[in-house]
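User: Please check token order:
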Amino acid sequence: MIRFVLAFVMLFAALPARAGVEVQELTTPGGLNAWLVEDHSIPFVALELRFRGGGSLDAPGKRGATNLMVGLLEEGAGEMDAQGFARATESLAANFSYGVNDDAISVSARFLTENRDQAAALLRASLLDPRFDPDAIERVRAQIISIIQSSQKDPRDLVGMAFDELVYGDHPYATSLNGTLESVAALTREDIIAAQRAALTRDRLYISAVGDITGDELSALLDGLLGDLPATGAPLAGEATLNLPGGVKVVEFDTPQSIAAFAQPGIDRDHPDFFAAYLLNHILGGGSFESRLMNEVREKRGLTYGVYSYLMDKDGAALWMGSVASANDRIAEAMSVIRDEWAKIRETGVTEAELQDAKTYLTGAYPLRFEGNGPIADIAVGMQMEGLPTDYITTRNDKVNAVTLEDVNRVARDLLDPSKLTFVVVGKPQGLESTIN
């Protein structure tokens, strides 16, 4: 019955959000900063926590430790082993999820108002008092090793790993946060505890909450939940020195279809020209079937099922990236067309019609992201990490619409650089050889 109640509440929590989202910024008595969107229409709260640093915090020689640690946070806490923690979570009709990427650890919690204090206590135990039992460590370690072994046979994973190794050099981004078979096998319980202490700290914490809770109630909950976290953690990894020399690196792999990742230097999210670049990318390769790359590479020539580009803004690197897959005997032609379109849009720009179509799509799609308490909380905590103001939700479309045709075409000339467009290809490409060692 409890499981049904949570499913019923979360169904209503996923209904389209109201047109206006009013974000309150608060500081708890204990000094924690948080954003809150109150919504008392249903007895449900979505809480999002982010810890900046993520997998890039791994200590030298301990690659994969942060990922393994995060995978163990729900495998027992305090006096509860893994099964006991799972039963306690289910009995409260709560839901916790833990994740990690290169730049952040994410913790998501969903709970009913009536069980708010008990759910917070359970979540607190997982963050401050995880058990890291030997059997749980070996179980999660085996899962990660299986993922690593699988990735060594997957062309899409291989192209990502080869690309990262080439582009990021000696930065942690250059290697998978999963670690290697050797590094994960060597990790000890002490390494996992050290990773927890390095990453789950107050100095890199971002918080958002949406739902049936007031500012005073949230403040009390957060100080009880997070107030005893360590004050500071390990130093952040810092900026990566990018290696994007232009040209091609081929990684031989026996597969009937080659996969290519490509990139050039990108643009920071806080750059004044970001929205112009965002619209330009939508026209170039981000607009699905309406983009120039899709039209030229797929629709006109039938070289691929899909090609796309996007702006990647990591904490330590900004890239303008893309990907394409094609038969071994056609990948070289697909890459040639991509280069040509990269150069063409830089030289001749976009049309007013293309710009207006991109604005219409991007401004129309934006409100659809706010489809319930959980998505709003996720967006709000991401805004904090990006350094955006609380009113960004209401001003974002104005910023998109303010971009002029002159802005977009100037950014195309200034930012796009075909000479630095670097391709990494995994497969058996015909007529294509490495120009990069």
Residues 22-226 form a domain with the Cytochrome Bc1 Complex; Chain A, domain 1 fold (CATH 3.30.830.10).
